[in-house]
Design goal:
Strand order of the largest sheet: 1-2-8
Oligomer: single chain
Number of strands: 8
Radius of gyration: 24 Å
Distance between the termini: 57 Å
Length: 474
């Protein structure tokens, strides 16, 4: 459990007290549905409760854990028995603390005051990001064909050193789509039946499949050979992307066969696009999965990480999604192709910050503005990226002006303005129904991931090594 200092009135955070730093305001665990279900069943002392009471029992258990966690119960830090919610200033202190752990404000201020962010050198190293944003904007404006597959590649290529170059990327998607079509045909499936073809994608991703392939052996003679495809797997090594940001990438999953809850749903989307099928990205807390319409138009949920089909009720009950959050489209909503491109723009902003820091915030601000146009309601990721940007800007401004307490904000108008804007953004998130997931909910998941990581190591399953998932037998 992290060590928490007793807070003083409106303090600037004593950095390093709250544990692991989220990438964008959420605890990045990449949990699979399999993990979450197992955690709920094995670690919840209320397991076995009749189905109608499971949600209330689970919530009661989570709240009990939160009550014992100083990060979520300031009363424990203050030596008070009665629990109470974090104040606005404590919430912002926590955001500033996370910002400091990710980017020291002294570096940012030095580059700002020296005009480094306007220099030719900085423009050169960030040019791939500016070019990528322009290309994604052109997709949304109609100047460039709309393509989910191309949007993912543009986004990841800007970061650099991808597992696949563009030719390899296009080739593996085409080969995969051709394989799925041929496998469906040889299984007697109706390739014009949308449900059949979605089932074929799911089999392709989750199972070892083979197709027969005639091969010319000379003198016009042929023999029957076969081509097999290995299933994708969940890569538990650095699944948070803490050591290597590219572990989130679709190109990494296609190149190695190993992915997580960000990249495996992306694999599904690009395969569906290549096959002319409709599919949507959807989200739950710290998690993403797929929705697609069946032949009657009803939406079906599919978990590429575990090869499961789960109902919305399951996600609400087991991932503690409030009715308010669902109503306000924070979770379990469908992201269409344009919105997936907008989400790629937000990922582009996060990759930029991971590589170059917040800089003068102009690039991240532009990304947020472009992405926001694609939603007619509030989008959680947009708000989280906005908070991340504002917290880093506020931290740098306070550092530069020598402010070490929120009570001094009146002495620095720009810092006060940023503080108020960040407060308003956090308040809106709360009103929409967003609450950060409590560490207790994922405590058991971390242990299971550690165990599975050991299994992955013992069997020498290298999710970072480029390999061909196709094998041919003559």
């Amino acid at each position: 459990m992290p060590t928490i200092e007793t807070p003083r009135p409106a303090p600037i955070p004593t950095y390093g007290n709250y544990g692991t730093v989220p990438l964008n305001g959420q605890i990045q665990l990449g949990a699979t549905a399999d993990d979450i279900k197992r955690q709920t069943n094995r670690n919840n002392p209320y397991y076995g409760t009749p189905h109608s009471d499971i949600q209330k029992a689970n919530e009661r258990w989570i709240y009990e854990q939160m009550a014992n966690d100083p990060a979520y119960n300031p009363a424990l830090r203050n030596g008070v028995n009665a629990p109470y919610k974090l104040t606005k200033q404590e919430e912002i202190s926590k955001l500033l603390q996370e910002a400091f752990q990710s980017e020291h404000p002294a570096t940012n201020i030095k580059n700002l005051t020296s005009n480094y962010y306007k220099s030719a050198d900085f423009q050169k190293i960030t040019q791939p990001y500016n070019q990528a944003l322009k290309m994604l904007e052109e997709m949304l404006s109609g100047k460039r064909p709309l393509s989910v597959a191309q949007a993912y590649f543009i986004t990841e290529n800007a970061y650099g050193n991808t597992y696949l170059n563009e030719a390899e990327y296009r080739a593996v998607i085409k080969k995969s789509a051709d394989f799925i079509r041929q496998w469906a045909k040889q299984q007697g499936m109706n390739r014009s039946n949308k449900e059949d073809m979605h089932m074929a994608i799911q089999k392709f991703m989750g199972e070892q499949l083979s197709i027969f392939k005639p091969q010319v052996i000379g003198d016009g003679k042929t023999q029957v050979g076969s081509v097999s495809h290995a299933p994708f797997f969940y890569d538990y090594t650095d699944y948070t992307g803490e050591k290597d940001f590219k572990n989130y990438f679709l190109t990494k999953a296609l190149a190695t066969g190993g992915g997580q809850c960000s990249s495996l749903p992306a694999v599904y989307l690009v395969l569906a696009e290549a096959l002319g099928l409709k599919a949507y990205m959807t989200t739950a807390p710290n998690h993403a999965f797929i929705k697609y319409p069946d032949n009657k138009g009803n939406l079906v949920n599919y978990e590429p990480t575990a090869n499961w089909k789960l109902s919305d009720n399951w996600y609400r009950d087991n991932m503690f999604i409030t009715a308010q959050a669902k109503k306000n489209h924070l979770y379990l909503d469908t992201l269409n192709s344009r919105q997936v491109v907008a989400d790629c723009i937000l990922s582009l902003a996060l990759g930029y910050v991971n590589k170059h820091g917040i800089a003068d915030a102009k690039f991240v601000s532009q990304c947020v503005a472009v992405a926001d146009k694609e939603f007619n309601h509030e989008n959680l990721q947009i708000r989280l990226v906005h908070s991340m940007m504002l917290s880093r800007m506020l931290l740098a401004t306070m550092y530069h002006t020598g402010i070490n307490d929120f009570s001094q904000l009146d002495n620095a108008p720009q810092a006060k303005k940023l503080y108020m804007e960040l407060s308003e953004n956090e308040q809106l998130l709360s009103q929409l129904g967003y609450t950060p997931q409590p560490p207790a909910m994922y405590e058991a998941l971390l242990k299971q991931h550690e165990f599975k990581g050991n299994i992955q190591d013992s069997f020498k399953i290298d999710g970072k090594k480029k390999r061909n998932l196709f094998s041919e037998i003559k």
